[in-house]
Write a structure and sequence with these properties.
By secondary structure, the protein is mostly beta strands. The chain is built from one helix and eleven strands. The strands form two sheets. Strands 1, 3, 5, 7, 8, 10 and 11 form a seven-stranded mixed β-sheet that branches. The protein has a four-stranded antiparallel β-sheet with strand order 2-4-9-6, with no helix packed on it.
């Protein structure tokens, strides 16, 4: 009985903590956390937003993407990806940052811890051979509340 209880406790503890060190590369495709039966909230109801530092870019430029909580609602985690809206292929790369974890397999950035955050600053480096870029993401407010489909677009100059 004690052994069964211990196993159940460990499984529940793992599920409750989610990915405390950031999203794994297997999250690249769907960009959704595996939080039990919980489903994403629609992006239009999100208290979070993406704001980019530029409306356009040239190859090699650095574009800053701010993940913000304008209402002050903290978030635990996030995954942001840069992609070409024509091809849906991921493009460019994000630079390392404080509290951030690169996922190089899919031009993405994630959190590196599950502490509350009010914002995150991501630096994306534009590739040499791409058109417009769109940033898409998922923000985890709590284990059972997360928003999927947030986006921002930057035009190629």
């Amino acid at each position: 009985m004690l052994k069964t209880s211990l196993v159940i406790f460990v499984v529940v503890l793992h599920l409750a903590s989610g990915w405390p060190t950031g999203a794994p590369s297997k999250a690249c495709e769907a960009m959704l956390p595996k939080h039990g039966s919980n489903r994403p909230q629609p992006a239009h109801s999100s208290p979070y937003s993406f704001v980019q530092s530029a409306e356009s870019y040239r190859p090699g430029d650095q574009v800053i993407v701010y993940v913000q909580a304008p209402t002050g609602t903290p978030f635990k985690g996030m995954m942001v990806q840069a992609y070409d809206p024509r091809t849906n292929n991921t493009i460019g790369e994000f630079l390392e940052g404080v509290g951030l974890k690169k996922i190089p397999e899919c031009a993405s950035m994630s959190h590196s811890d599950n502490r509350d955050k009010k914002s995150a600053t991501l630096v994306w480096v534009a590739p040499q051979d791409s058109g417009n870029v769109r940033f898409r993401g998922t923000i985890v407010q709590q284990f059972n509340t997360f928003y999927h489909g947030l986006s921002a677009t930057v035009q190629k100059a």
